[in-house]
Records
---
Amino acid sequence: MKRKTLIIPMSLCITAALSLGTPIQVLAGSPEFSRTADEWARLRDNVLEYGEIADLVHEYNSTVLQNENEYRKENSRTPKEITSAYLDAANSAWGAYSNAQDGMTAAQSLIAARQAENAAEDNVMTEDKKRTQLLNSLEERNIVKQAQSTMNTYYQLQYQLTSLKKNRELLEATVTSTQGRQAQGMATQADVLNAQQNLQSADAQIIAMENQIESTRQNLIITLGWAQNANPEIRPMPPIDVQRILDMDVASDTQKALDADYTLQVDQRELENANSEANRQIKRQKIEEEKQKIAVAVSDGYQKVIEAQSSYEEAVTNLEVAVKNWNTANTKYQLGSISRMEYIQEETAKVKAEMDVEVKNLELFQAMEAYDWVVEGVR
């Protein structure tokens, strides 16, 4: 299923969708000339790559498209017209308050009047188009950040599912072994029931994990413009570039974050637009607090990268041990010196260690991405 940009009568779209079971895709947010033919082809195929997420969000995410539409609509009215409308509403509410015949009506009218007056004042303070653009850009980048995290989680869950399935093989073998030992008088019925319960529990965990994976997949593709019943190919996550860690510098990156931070930029615009010294003082205090938060976010983000790197290296070491143990067990099993159960135990430990390395690798990747997002102005 590919995204479509041709403008086709809606009746024909619906007819085709119903007859073919094909999900209707949203139109791109940008005009055709804004990208090359190759770029559009890459975004319109039925393949999702990590590096495409930002462009897919920009062109197809419903929230981003709605924000852009509302921005254009709002800018068709002047700030003075919007403020005037709020003041008219406030005057009307004050009139209702003065003429109210009961306490409930008076209270409701008073609340409405004050809300309208506050809205009028807020509009005067925030009529700056740049502020709206900053807020929209921040929301879009947060959606990109979340989508990247969701794709990362999708693959972490896949690796965890592999571990669960391998563990199920061990538990199934345990049931068979326990039943055999019971027949020889070496295990009780309670032992068999316990082994069977462990296997049933593993089956339930696998089902729950599969459901979580599907839910995560749907959340990801819907965010990027696919229909809920679409089935795009989700390509593997990109490899880690260790050089990125070596290039991290908390001091210089903190300054970059201060310069780029979207929330701080919005606060600064509101300070410039504030129409009273009291409002300006509040904004100055908030800006100073935000600067402190940014510095902390960069420092914390770096520490999380280092911790994730350490966890990954530990997982690699554990895998080396697990592989060595499995090789030894494999040799012994071929010679008949250990049981099948003992061999399966070592094989399961090896697979779990392999999957743990993959998960820790993705956790490190996510920590690095989170750090870069803070430096780029998104907390």
Note: The chain has 13 helices and two strands.
---
Amino acid sequence: MKILRITAQGLPLFKEDLDVCFYTQQRVDEDDKNNLYNLIDNYYLHSACAFIGINASGKTSVLKVINLALNIIKNEPINHVEAKNILGGSEKATIRTYFYDKRKYICCLETVITAKKAKTGEHVYSILSERLWEKPIVSVKSKKYLTDFDGIEPVDSRNNNEAYLSDDVSCIIAHNKKVKDTVDVFSLLSYTNVNVLPFTEDIPLEVITFLDPTIEKLYFEKLEGKTFIHLKFRDEDEIILNNAVDLEQYLSAGTIKGIITFSMVKEVLQSGGYLLVDEIENHFNKEIVTTLMRFFMDSRLNKRGGTLIFTTHYPELLDEYDRNDGICIVRNRKGITVENLSYILKRNDIKKSDAYQSGFLEGTTPAYEAYMRLKKKLAASVK
């Protein structure tokens, strides 16, 4: 299963409807094909999707919507999904997820969600209604109509009287069982500021030495129901620990996040799933981040179309892209908006980081007035 597009309406934090496409918007030249995933014929998907914006622009909120949509398609109960708080207690939020399945069909799942307040004060979400459309991809005349379902009747709709269907689980579960299709989702949303290394028996030495060349050995050993961690640095004695949290005393936050991230990368490349990373540059140097991006953007390595979806503050990362349509600009001006860079910047040969930092794209650099106020405040405090 491959996600083509996600739209969302009725979310309190957003100024307008959210619309994110994961298939190419611009023409695909021969030189582009090595950096994209060929879905079928002349349809290509982005393997690395970037969402960039200044602080408090709403990048994490966009990632949460994508995470929620992916988990709905994956049959996860909405109330168990960490990103559910992006619904913000909305009385009526509509999420449409367009995807391509094993049968070579384009499908659209429309999920309408509502909220009620529990006695604890928390919101509990349930699905009001759902509809599913589908069409064979061979019936699509051009990319313009790839996700157009005008004039097509739904093939299925939600029956809220179904005894075995929880009110916060999508009816797409029946479709997925019938088609024997699913989507793998790995999220690092919760690892943005917290680094806890999960116990794992298989951390490739190549990953460890790439992140920290001074480490000679790091592995987990289970003995009599207990887990021991063996850690050895070059020219030093081996250290044995029995609590993963203690590793934070010996390993940097970047090394820990890197081990977690690259372990997920391996799974995503194998399954052709999705990896969501918020603020990808946190705890990483630029070389590690660009290596991650290049793994996904190399069609020879990424044969199953695994997709990296990430947010960033760093405009320099945009220069890793030869195309503009794999990048979205996120702004917050009385509400979050998302705009594909290809709609603003028509030419691919303009250096993207320069365009972003110049203010040409509007709302991508801190306001000059805010800068001057901060400067005056600092000047007054150091007198």
Note: The longest strand covers residues 123-136.
---
Amino acid sequence: MPMRSLTLVGIIISMLTGLCLGVLVHLKNRIPAEQQSAKTINDAINQISNHYVESVSQETLSSHALKGMMQGLDEYSSFLDADEFRALQATTTGKFGGIGVQLAVVDGFITITRVTDGTPAADAGLIAQDRIIELNQHPAKGKLLTDIISELRGQPGTDVDLLIQRQDQKTPLVFKLMRAVIELTSVEGHLIAPGYGYVRIAHFQASTDDNLTQVLSQLHKQSPAGLHGLIIDLRNNPGGSLQGAVEVADQFLDTGLIVTTKGRLNSKSARYRATKGDALNGKPIAVLINGASASAAEIVAGALQDQGRAQVLGVQSFGKGSVQTLVPLTNAQALKITTAHYFTPNGHSIHDQGLTPDIVFEGSENELLEKAMNWLKSRKIDIVPGQL
């Protein structure tokens, strides 16, 4: 081989060797750089733990660090401690250990607003408007409502002690209850007029589709001549389970797209389609929304609107077009991470914009119901014998 060729080969080998060494050095330096962020966080936690004016545990500091980390991503991603994770799971599944009451703060007192039939609270004789004065021998007034709810929940079979002030009695009443499995029902319904049903979906959970099926079955039984139309009330519905929303929309769609999710990972991108069958056989549907209708509620309203299956009435919805995934951590904690955005069948993203109703109406609750009823009656479809 000529000397010139040997020299050229040597230059090329040297260049390749230098390039490989450069890549190796880059990779070697990159790993410590990535680890440096974790080291900085650990150093900061140790320094705060050692020097802060008051004693604070490293567990507390780690929790604060995780909360800040997640809040820095977006407004819907968050770190959940054990209590928050347990409460969210109960909301999603619709089952938890408790006594069967709904609470609110009324005039500064933790007050029972509703008692569910067939629960320990109902069996013990608790009623709406009862005020909780003490919970397990500790004063209830001044505590956060969320803390009281968390304390009332627990393992089925465990005891809860309540001191109750009833409106018509001067002496407080003592109750000892045993927690049981409580199943939340997210769907309520009744006939609003002969042949016309009203269904309110408070939130979406794993059992919402089954709850809706049961309510619709009751409405059909109460209307021997058949339902002429249905109002689905999604006002003040904050959302919940994506799967629950898809299943509810599918109840009224015979075919077509329900929702599309798009994420950075392929596993978080999907197209959800309707399966054959319409629970109302094409009868008209009016969907009610407001500024507190969000997420899964907007998925249902958007799907029925885009597919021309329902008329949406009310005011602009909240505008939460993102999907969160729960990622369990150690110590029964979890991360709620935004993993995808969703799009209505027509490809619209309602994130930070909301869903625009077909009929914008800002009247009172009863006026909106009347507006929806008038629209349904104007769309009445007579049943022809032999046809569905």
Note: The chain has two domains: 96-183, 187-378.
